[in-house]
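@channel anyone free to eyeball this complex?
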Amino acid sequence: MTLEKTINTAEIESRQYKEWEASGAFTGHPEKNTAPYTIMMPPPNVTGSLHMGHALNNTLQDIMIRYNRMRGKDAMWMPGTDHAGIATQMVVERQLDQEGLKRQDMGREAFLKRVWEWKAYSGGTITGQLRRLGSTPDWSREAFTMDANLSKAVVKVFVQLYKDGLLYRDKRLVNWDPKFHSAISDLEVENREVKGHMWHIQYAIEGDKARTITIATTRPETMLGDTAIAVNPEDDRYKDLIGKMAIVPICNRLIPIVADEYADPEHGSGAVKITPAHDFNDFEVGKRHKLPMINIFDENAHLNENVPEEYRGMERFAARKKILKELEELEILVKVDNITHTVPHGDRSGVVIEPYLTDQWYVDAKKMSLPVVDAIKAGKTEFVPKNWEQITFNWVDNLQPWCVSRQLWWGHQIPAWYDEDGKVYVAENEEEAQKQAPGKKLTRDEDVLDTWFSSALWPFSTLGWPEKTPELNKYYPGDLLITGFDIIFFWVLRMMMMGIHFMGDVPFKKVYLHALVLDAKGQKMSKSKGNVIDPLTIIDKFGADALRFTMSASAAQGRDIRMSEERVEGYRNFTTKLWNAARYCEMNDCLPKEGFDPSKVKNVINQWIIGEVLKATKDIEDALAAYKFNEASHAVYQFTWGTFCDWYLEFTKPLLADAPDDVKAEIRGTTGWVLDQILRLLNPFMPYVTEELYANIAKRGKDERLLTSEWPSYPASLINNAAAEEIGWLQRVISQIRSVRSDMNVPASARIDLVVQDASETTKKHISTYEAVLKQMARLNSVSLLTGKAPGRSIKAVVDEATLILPIADLIDLDKERERLNKQIAKLQDDIRKTDEKLANQQFVSNAPAEILEEFRNRKVEAQGLIDKLATALSQLEAA
RNA sequence: GGGCGUUUAGCUCAGUGGUAGAGCGCUUCGUUUACACCGAAGAUGUCGGGAGUUCGACCCUCUCAACGCCCA
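replying in thread with the prediction:
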């Protein structure tokens, strides 16, 4: 086959992916003895679509999976999707809304049918998009958090945690989302800074018309639920009022004035109203003082029957207005301050969260997290970068019970039943529950579980737990988890809690936490800002390989990634470069040859490039072992472009034209071999273009693919230091000549002569060996050794012991050459001065390690040698 | 208010206790039959400010500042 002149990424991508998937190479083999390499994919929302975060996350996972598959591991990347309770229900409710329907009118069953339909319709979108990225998870095991077996695991876990006393029902204040009519967890609350007011309201004191007490509040409507006023016990202003009763305006209820440290004398008026049913701090104060709790809201955050008649049924912010108006009329609204404060909002709904007293299910997250901390400290699970471990510990210290019930319909319905007295029975099914409550009429808990409850089980529920499957046996614990730091607390820790509790071991050995993908200006991408870059658009424009390489090359640990098209464009150019290099190889019959043995190579240039392949391989391996994706990418990029294309192919061009046949044959073999290695090294990063080239550069068997080929592995003895030194010399000579030519404005088209002065025997040998290469790459007419006197009017450059003379009298500008030489000398003298200062420092000489001293001394000698040669060149110039 | 992170070339960012690197951009030159999505050469930095540790600091410590994120 002949490679097309230009690469057609869209065509290659769709064709190659189909072949990969059909080949069955993504599938894990629990029945085989091969060592496993397991990654659990963070399941994206089933109805979602690919964003840059997914692109980053999945690229990194796929690199590790492909790399380990090539290294002979049983690579198993577990894919799947999450039912995403609130998010999905919200989407479907919005659709219903447009049809003028409400889920309450449809009923639970009909609504769920509708959600399943939506899931069936849009559920394949995200997995299709992951395929476009080139991801190779084991699709045959694709799971969904609401699959029957995963749901079974959820029920099992719920019941067991209940039995273990780690899950319980409790009446507490929750973060209530009035839009969803549901409790949400602390983590789902987003505190937003907003402009608001601090209202100062005067309360009368019972039996003392002369005294009043002024409290400050940002939420005056909650005064209808006040059950106390708190003052600081040390606050002299109010000491005498402690124990007296105040009168709540409007509803004219009597409430005690209590002493509590919570009241901050510095803050507001120093006196705070206490509404235990609607504020987390007040709730604690209420418990301390055994205050009654008056709930004044319903599930819509509308005022309920516990408030004066004229307020009942009012929306909370309307009620606030009315109250303020009434307070004003009563002339007890004494002051209004404009302030900025943080107000809790639902991260999904965007509405203000109301602390609300309800019965909910809680998991004792604190208790379950203790073994997690121990496991991390013991190194059973290691976080990369490490600093997340400490952050995790701090967070665990402040852990609150995890509210796991949600008043939604889409999700895992809680396996709990109530009898007519409200007694609860937790069981795996109704039959079991009934056994616990013989003869009683049971009703099932209407609520569902937090989405993160089921995703916390992901590392083992997807492998068949609670059955003892071969998969579970082989793939748990997983090797690596790659996810964003923003869901450490939502997901990573909860997986660890559940994994340790139910499997007796951590779910993964390493957790790589990547940063966020931002726009080019460093801002978070969001629909409202309109700065979202769609990965699919990027793929269409530059190809999936370019996007993947951008992600990998940008993934420096602990730093956000600024996404810009220019960067992707640069890596698109890299794919083109590789493509063209392969075309060149094809045109020159430099393709992989059967039976080529890199250890048998005789030509130094070939020995050198083989050694460079090995060095690059090691660099990539080391970088990946440390999860430094940017370094690994850089190593393979640099080798391919900077070493193979820029030097090796250029070195060998003149030889392919003129050298003896055996040399040509060896070059062809070596070039083909190196190309083959590059394709392997690059494959995890750029799977499509490499696969396509691999298929085209040699005859391949039906099932022979890079996807399942082997990662390069050769003995380090193939690195030939003498060859590296020799080629280093060659590169220095060529660079020097090119540099002076350019400095002196010698036209590239001008073929000039090179005369070498003071050449050592080795250099003489090299000059003769590489004459053809030097001529072509430095654009020379002839290469010779100096005999007799050095020509005066010429450009000179120094490489090691030798002086390179370019006698081009008619082409050079004497002043310019003088200037160039003087500049070089001046710079070297400056270096020597600095080195001398160091060497003159007695403390440096006596304290610095020997090899450093040696290095500085050598540096000086070398610089002096150079100066001498340049000075000679300069004086000859003057003499001429 | 607490915590974390960032501050290095015009831009985006790597980096190491021993005389600063990449990509992009910029300048000059170039149509040598893989590639102009290219090649060659080049310019540009008191490595945020200050102090300390050290023979030696961009790197370690302290401090200040700016910016960002998270939590209260």
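from a first look: Chain A is about 45% helix and 15% strand.
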